[in-house]
Write a structure and sequence with these properties.
Helix content: over 70%
Strand content: 5-15%
Strand order of the largest sheet: 1-2
Largest sheet: 2 strands, antiparallel
Number of domains: 1
Order of helices and strands: HHEEHHHHH
Oligomer: single chain
Number of strands: 2
Number of helices: 7
Length: 174
């Protein structure tokens, strides 16, 4: 009887140990899942912060508007207001005249900020800080607006060192 009691006690101890091991493994798995969820949330939040920062920049916002609403009027230079269309954008980005008009300088400034933020976004994607899905909009629709003059935008980005912006646009089908 004493032997049977020792066997039962040993069996209970083994079962208790196994339960403790399985519980510890499950807690570790749950912790890993929670950390993964928290990391993903932080990545999505960083992407939102980058986009918010971009849209707080008036030049960036103007570049997006120029592409989205051709012919829209903008205020620049000596407080003139003029409409800017796709032909104006192409002319500004193709120009190598150092005496640009106020209008062309304004357009180039706006697109410099657009490409600057695209550079930052691509760098964040490449270092796994954010995912393309988090920043796809509003940029996907811009690709459609730019694709007809791809060579102009591509050349401007190349000449001005916006290599990451080009990679970013290519991710979006540019």
């Amino acid at each position: 009887m004493k032997d049977l009691l020792q066997v039962i006690t040993g069996l209970i101890a083994v079962i208790g140990g196994l339960i403790a091991v399985f519980k510890a493994l499950d807690e570790m798995r749950q912790s890993r899942i929670q950390r993964k969820i928290e990391l993903r949330w932080k990545q999505a939040n960083l992407a939102r912060e980058i986009l918010d920062s971009a849209f707080e920049n008036k030049y960036f916002e103007n570049a997006v508007s120029m592409l989205d609403l051709p012919g829209r009027k903008f205020k620049f230079g000596d407080s003139r207001t003029e409409s800017i269309n796709l032909q104006d954008i192409v002319a500004a980005l193709e120009s190598d005249d150092p005496t640009h008009s106020d209008k062309l300088v304004f357009i180039r400034d706006c697109f410099d900020y657009l490409f600057f933020y695209m550079n930052r976004i691509e760098q964040a994607i490449e270092t796994n800080l954010i995912f393309i899905e988090d920043v796809k909009q509003p940029f996907s629709f811009l690709v459609g607006k730019m694709i007809g003059n791809r060579h102009v935008f591509e050349e401007y980005m190349k000449e001005n060192g916006y290599n990451y912006a080009m990679k970013f646009l290519n991710r979006l089908g540019f």
